[in-house]
Amino acid sequence: MDYKDFFGIKKHDKTDVFLNRLSSLDEEYYFHIASCILGAIPTPFNKQSLNGSILSFFANEGNKRNAILSINDDERKILQFVSLMEEANLQQIEAFCNDMNHYVLVLGIENLCDRLLLFKTADGYVVNPLLEDDIMALKGDVRKGTGTKRPYVDSNVLRAVLNMLINGSVPQREANLHRFYKSGRIQAVFPQFEGKKAIRMFELIRKVIMESDAIQLNGSHVSLDRYTCRHLFILPTIDVCLSAMRVWYGPELEKALAKTLPVLIEFPMEEKRFTGIVSATLGDSAPEGFVQDLEALGLLNESNAGASHGISLNEAIMEPPLKRSALTIDSDLMVSYYGIPDEYDILYLFADVQKCDNLIVYAITKSSFSRALGFETSRDEIEKYLNDPKTNVVLEQWERAASRVKVYDGIVLKCTEEVSFLVHKLFGVSRNVIAELGDGVFLMKRSTEEQWRRVLSKALDLEDLPSPICENTHDGSLNSNVFRWHGIKAERRPTTECTAKEAPSWDDVRKELIDDANAKGCMTEELGNLIDAKRIVSTSQIGKAFKYEKLPTAGGFDFNAKLALIKKAIGRKANSNPIPLKLELLEDEVLAVPLEIQGSGSKAFLKAAVLPEGTVRTIPIGTIYQVTLMRTY
Amino acid sequence: MEETKSHDLPLIVQSDRTMLLDVHSPNANSCRDEIMAFSELVKAPEHIHTYAISAISLWNAKSAGLSTEEILVRLGHWSKFAVPQTVENYIQDVSSRFGKLILEPCLEEDYYRLRITDPFIAKAVQANQKVSKMLVSTLDDGSNSFRIHRYNRGDAKLALIKLGYPVDDRIPLVKSEHVAITMSCKLRDYQENAVRSLLGDLGPGTGYGTIVMPCGSGKTVVGMKIMEALQTRTLILCPNVVAVHQWINEIKSKTNLSDDMVGEYSGEKKEIRPITVCTYQVLTYRASKDGDFEHMKVIEAGNWGLVIYDEVHMLPAPVFKITAELQSVYRAGLTATLIREDGKEDDVFSLVGPKRFDIPWTDLSQKGWIASAYCVEVRVPLKEDLALPYAIANRREKYKLASTNDAKNSVVDSLLEKHKGESIIIIGQYLDQLKDLQKRLGFPMITGSTSNSKRDELYSRFKEGLDKVIIVSKVANFAIDLPDASVAIQISGTFGSRQEEAQRLGRILRPKRNPCFFYSLVSKYTVEEEFSANRQKFLVEQGYHYVVEEV
Prior knowledge:
The complex is a heterodimer of chains A (633) and B (551).
Chain A: H1 3-7, H2 14-23, H3 27-38, H4 47-59, H5 61-69, H6 73-85, H7 90-96, H8 102-114, E1 118-120, E2 125-127, H9 132-136, H10 155-166, H11 177-182, H12 185-189, H13 195-212, E3 215-218, E4 221-224, H14 226-233, H15 237-249, H16 251-260, H17 263-266, E5 269-270, H18 271-282, H19 290-296, E6 300-302, E7 310-313, H20 315-318, E8 328-329, E9 334-337, H21 347-350, E10 352-356, E11 360-363, H22 366-374, H23 379-386, H24 389-402, E12 411-414, H25 417-425, H26 427-430, E13 433-438, E14 441-444, H27 449-459, H28 506-520, H29 525-532, E15 553-555, H30 559-570, E16 581-584, E17 589-598, E18 605-610, E19 615-620, E20 626-629
Antiparallel strand pairs in A: 1-2, 3-4, 5-7, 6-7, 8-9, 9-11, 10-11, 12-14, 13-14, 15-20, 16-17, 16-20, 17-18, 18-19
Helix pairs in contact in A: 2-4, 7-18, 10-13, 13-15, 13-19, 15-16, 16-18, 22-24, 28-29
Chain B: E1 11-13, E2 18-22, H1 28-35, E3 40-43, E4 48-52, H2 55-63, H3 68-78, H4 85-97, E5 101-105, E6 111-116, H5 119-127, H6 129-132, E7 135-138, E8 144-149, H7 153-163, E9 168-169, H8 189-199, E10 208-212, H9 219-230, E11 234-238, H10 241-254, E12 262-265, E13 275-279, H11 280-283, H12 294-300, E14 306-310, H13 317-325, E15 330-335, H14 345-351, E16 355-358, H15 361-367, E17 373-380, H16 384-392, H17 395-403, H18 408-418, E18 424-427, H19 431-441, E19 445-446, H20 452-463, E20 469-472, E21 487-490, H21 498-506, E22 516-523, H22 527-541, E23 546-550
Parallel strand pairs in B: 5-9, 10-15, 10-16, 11-13, 11-14, 12-13, 14-15, 17-22, 17-23, 18-20, 18-21, 19-20, 21-22
Antiparallel strand pairs in B: 1-2, 2-4, 3-4, 5-6, 6-8, 7-8
Helix pairs in contact in B: 2-4, 3-4, 7-13, 8-9, 16-17, 21-22
C-alpha cells in the first residue's frame, strides 16, 4: 500500500504512459534522446520501433539500476517531489527547492529530462513512470515524519461536534459564538486538542457540517439528515480536512492541497516552503493561516525538520483505525467506548457528548433522549443499540413523560363523518395522514398536499378543497442533498516502507563505463561529457556505432564565431532555456548560463549567471578565450 | 511489575488528566493500588471509576516519597493507550515544584525559615504582594531563605499553594501534654489503613490530612484510633450538639477515658478538658457582626496536640482562621463527602491537610462493612388541585408545591405498612409537611426547635426500639448515629443537594444483617424530578442505583 492509495491517486499502466510521453516529445528532441540511448538511428526512422527499443532499454534491470544509481540527493528530492505532486511546474519545483539557485535548478531539470528521468509536459514535468517506484523507494538524509503523533479529526470528533450542534450547546447566532468559544466548553470536550487549536478545529468542523446540510438549525427547530450524517462519518480525515479548506478558503485551495499535501509524506519542511509550493500551485499567494488550520485539524504536525516552524503529515492518521470497543454503560448513564464506531452508530443522536479523547464518553439524559425522539429515533432502536436492561426502564419512563405533549407539523383537515370514511378508505388520502387528532379531525402531510387534495376533491366532486384557514408558512421540507465531496475516497493506508536496494554506487558505474569505453577504444571528450552528464548509464550505449556529438566550440581570435555561439546559446527555441556555456577566461574557466548580450561589436558584454552559485557577472566577450556550448541540442 | 497483555490493561488516561479504570479488568485492583498514591477518586459507579490527577494529589504523592519517574512509569504500565504528552508534561512540571519551598525550624523563637531552592520561584514569591507581606526578612546565608512568623504559617502555605507552589512543611508537629488513651475495640482493616495513611511514620509531612469514608463506616472510631496513636490533648470539632454528644458517648464507651477527661464545649456547656468536643457554631459565634469570635480565643489557648474536624466539608469559613493558626498540631479531617457549595475544597486540603484516604462506597458495601442499600425513587402524581397552582408558580414555589404534595401521604402509609416492625426514619425539608405527618401518624418528631435533651431522649428511644418510627427534619442530616435504622423515607429535600442525599442515606448504612431501603418520594412530572436527579448524582457515582417506581 503506498501514498497513492492513501491519497486516492489514480494509477495507470506504466508502459502505456511511458510510450505516450515519449511520443509527445518534440521530434528533434526525441531523435537526440533516442540517439544517445540506442546509437546511430537511420532516417527515416520508425518511431514505434524506436519506442519499443527505448522501452526495452529501461526494462533491462541493469540499465534501470544504473539509471537510479546516477541520481544524486538533490535530483532525488526533485524527482520525488514531482512524483508526489503527480505533475509539477517549474515554479512549484523552485518553491520546493527554495535554497537552490534558479539556473542550477533549470539546468538540473533539463539534465533529468535528457536522461529520461523526467518528461516535460504542457503544464510542467512528470516522472518517468517506469522508474517512478524505484525513485520513490530511494532514501534520503531528510528524516520523514518525525513529528509527535497528535490528535486529529476523526469520526468521533465529527460526531461530537455534530452532537454539540444539535443538543443546543452551541449558539446558533454567529454573534454569540465568540462567547461560547471563550467558555471553555470546547476544551472540556476535546482536551486532547490544545487550547486555541481546539476552538479553531471546532470552528472549521462546524462549518463543514453546516455546509453539508446534515443538520439545519432554526431556533428550537433542529432537523437532521441521518443519511448525510452517515456519509460524513465515513469520510477519511484527509477528505474532512480538505473539505474544511474548501468551505473556509474556497475550492481552489482544496484542489491545490489535494495535490501538494502528499509531498509532506516524504518531505517534512518549513511552513514557508510548503506555503510557497501551494502558492505556486495556486498560481497566486496562498491564503494566510491555512497551515495553522491544518495543524488545528490534526492533519499536520510540527516536525523536527528545518530550523523554523516545520511541518509534516501527522503519522497518527496513517495508522489503521481501531474498531469501536463494546459500550460500557454505567449506573450514572454515562456511556463510554474507545475506537471508531461504524457509520450506523447512533449514540450521538440520543446522548450528549462529555469527552472526546482516548475514551469517548456520552451522557444519556432525559433531554437528550427526548431530542432523539424528535429525530425519528425510536425507543426500540435505542434499546436495541444499548442492549442494557437497566436503562430500558429509565428510557420507558422518559418516553412516557416526553409523549405527554406532542407537536406536529402539518395541515389540519376537519370533515364530516361521511368524508372521514373516505379519508380512511382512499389510499391516496389515508397514506398522507400523520395522525388522527379526533373524530373527523386529521393531521395531513404538508409535503404531499397537492396529491391528497386532488384525490379527495375528485372523490367529493369538487374543483378543489377549500383554502386553508390561517395557513402556516413554515417550510418543513428538508434539504436532503448529499454533500458531494471531491470524489476521492481514499482509505487510510500506511506509508510505503523504503526498500533501498543494496547496489554499487554511481562512482562504480561511472568507472565501469569509462573502462568499457577505453576497452572499446571509443573514449572521447564528447563521450566523457555525456558520462559526466549521466546520460550514459549502460555499456550498451558505448560503441563505435554511437556518434557522440562534439560540443560546438569557438575560441581564439574568432570573435564573431564566439559571439554567434553565445547568441545561439541564448536564443534557443522559444520556451526553452538558454544553453549553458563553458567559458575559458584569462584566469579561470567557468560554467555559466548566458542571459543576454549587452552592447555590440567588439565592446559587447555577456551577462551570465555563473554556476554553481548563479552569481550574475558581466564579462567582456573579448576577454573570453574559448566558448563551448554544453549541449548539442 | 509483571508483563501485562494490552487487552488486560485497565486504565485509560485522558488528556484532561482524568483516568478511567475498568473495574472488571483482572488487573483493576493492582492498578488502583498504584494510582491511588498520586490521584484522587472522583466517582465510582458500576463499571468505570474516575480518578483525577491534580496538583495537590501530585504534591501529596511527592510528600509521601513517590518520585515523578515512578508516577510516569506506573501510568505507562497500566495505560491501554499512550499517555497523552500534555499529561506527562503536567506531571513533570507540577510535581517538580514540590520540594522547592521548604519550611524549616528557625533558630529564632516564634519564627520559621522558608527556604526556596529555585531563584526564579524566589523572585516570583517576593513579587506577590500577599505573600511578600508575610516574609519578614531574608536570611543572609546565601540561600533564598526568608523568615516567617509562626502565626503566618498557615496563611503563607495557603497563599503559596494558590500561587502554584506547595510548601514542604518539615517543621515537626508539636505534641502537647500527654494524655493516656487506650481503645477497647478492634478496628477493621480499612480503618487501620485510614489511620496509617494519615499518620504515616509521624515524620515531617505526615500527621495531618483528610479521610473520606462512607457514612456508617466508622469515622468516629478512626478518629479515636488517631487519638490513641498520638496520646495527646485533643480538640474535636463537630457540626452540631447531637454529634458532640455522640462523640462523647463513643469516647466514653470505647476508650479508657473517664468522665472528667472528656468535656463538652457548646452553647449549653463550656468545659475545656484534655479531650474537648466542640461545635463549629460556638467557635464562629460573636455577639455582633463586627465583634470578636469570643470562644475562639479560648480554644486557641487550649494547647492542643490534635484537632479532629468531624464532617470537615462543613468547615465554616471563619474557622479557617483558627485552622491556619493551628498548623503546628496534628490535624485530621473526617467526612463522607467532600463536596462544598463554596468551592473551598482546596482550602480544606491546604489547611487541614490533603486527602490521605478514600475508599469507594461499593467496596465497603460488598465486604459488608456498610449495609447494602436499595435506593428507590417513588414517583407520585401531583394532586389534581395542585396542577394549576403548580403550572403558574415560579420555580422556587413549584419546588415547594411538588415537595409538599399531599399525594405522598398515601405512599408513606404504604411504605410504613410494608416495613412494619422495622426501624424507620422519615426525613423532610418542610416543617409544615412534617408537622402534618406527625399529627396524622402520631410519631415522635425532631426538628431544629427540639431541645438537645429532648433530642437525645428521642434518639435513645429509637435506638432502644421503643419507638420504631421517627420523623426528623434536616437537623438529622449529619452525624447522628442510628445503628438500627433500616429504612429511610425522604419525603422532601433541599433542592438538589447531593451532599444531603448522601448524608441521609448514611443514616441507615450502619452494618446490619438485612439490606436497608432508602425511599425518595418525588412528585411526577415536576421540577422535583429534576432536582432529585441532581441529588442522586453523588450516590450514583458511588455505584448506587436508583430504581424508579411509579404510583
